[in-house]
Structure formats: structure tokens, C-alpha cells
Design brief:
The structure is a single chain. Helices cover 16% and strands 40% of the residues. The mean pLDDT is 95. Strand 5 and strand 6 form a beta hairpin. It is of the alpha+beta class. The chain has helices at residues 21-27, 75-93, and strands at 19-20, 39-44, 49-56, 99-110, 118-130, 133-142, 145-157. It is built from 2 helices and 7 strands. It has one domain (9-157): Hotdog Thioesterase (Thiol Ester Dehydrase, Chain A, Roll). It has a 7-stranded antiparallel sheet.
């Protein structure tokens, strides 16, 4: 049985874009195929809750091999999408020049297969907001059904060139 929703997904208005894809990636360094978020549509600084979405298309690079004739959005990309939501949220809550890297995942559960085309709505709640550690509970939904849940930990990394 899934846990209670962080935020009632039926109340998330995906037409009310607060941050576009372009604005998100002004803060996040991921590019090209690894730009996983399409929009941020909810942000509450008082409750530390954020929501965004990612549109899963049937012409994406991973569809050809995961799995041929019946593509399923890879769990590792769901984790990456959740981590990017947490990373963007950290920039809002605790602005920093540091790159927030993927420090870990806990309690991850994949509840349904996500098959394109689909809109994945991700909802996060920050539960630890220190400069050296940012922890965010994430839930992802497709058509109102919880597809993923987990706790993402981000820690600052030095990006080397």
C-alpha cells in the first residue's frame, strides 16, 4: 500500500508553470538527454513542498533498447529525475554556488511501470535543508497513481573540468 501523498496530486495544476525547462537548467548543470525536468508547477517555501513534471515520449533515446516493442521508463532515469527535482529545490531553499550531487537514495519503491507517452508528476518535500546535505522525500505519479517513492540525499561536490 502506498504511503499518504505529500501533496494531493489532483490539486497540482500543470498548466501553471512557475519555472520552465529553460529556467530550471539555468540552475542545474545537466544537459541534452540528461535534462529530465520539463517544468516546476508548485512551490511552497513554508511547507517545503515542490512539484514538477516530466513528459515521457515514445521517441526518446532509451526507448529503442529498454525494452524493444514495449518501452518502459528506466528506474534509474526516474531516480535521476527525482534527484534533479531535489537539486533544483535545494537551489530555491538553500542557494549555493556548489553543485549538489547525488549522495544517496533510501526507501525507493517502483510501484508501476511507466510506459510512454506519459506525464510523470513529481512531488517533493524537503526534510533536511543544511548547506552540506539536502534530503528530500519524492513521490512520482502517473494518471493519479503513485509510480515511485523514495528519499533522495544530495551533497555538494566540486565539479572538475
Amino acid at each position: 500500500m502506498p504511503p499518504p501523498q505529500i501533496l494531493d496530486v489532483s490539486t497540482v495544476d500543470c498548466d501553471r508553470i512557475l519555472y520552465s525547462r529553460e529556467q530550471i537548467y539555468e540552475s542545474l548543470p545537466q544537459r541534452f538527454e540528461f535534462s529530465q525536468l520539463d517544468a516546476i508547477v508548485h512551490l511552497d517555501r513554508d511547507t517545503l513542498i515542490i512539484a514538477g513534471y516530466r513528459d515521457i515520449r515514445d521517441d526518446e533515446w532509451w526507448c529503442r533498447g529498454h525494452l524493444p516493442q514495449k518501452p518502459i521508463f528506466p528506474g534509474v532515469l526516474m531516480l535521476e529525475t527525482a534527484a534533479q527535482l531535489a537539486g533544483f529545490f535545494r537551489e530555491i531553499v538553500v542557494p549555493s554556488d556548489d553543485f549538489l550531487g547525488f549522495g544517496g537514495v533510501d526507501l525507493a519503491k517502483f510501484r508501476i511501470a511507466v510506459v510512454p507517452p506519459a506525464r510523470v508528476i513529481l512531488i517533493g518535500r524537503a526534510i533536511e535543508t543544511r548547506k552540506r546535505r539536502f534530503v528530500c522525500e519524492i513521490q512520482a505519479f502517473v494518471d493519479g497513481t503513485m509510480a515511485f517513492e523514495g528519499t533522495i540525499t544530495g551533497i555538494p561536490f566540486e565539479l572538475r573540468t
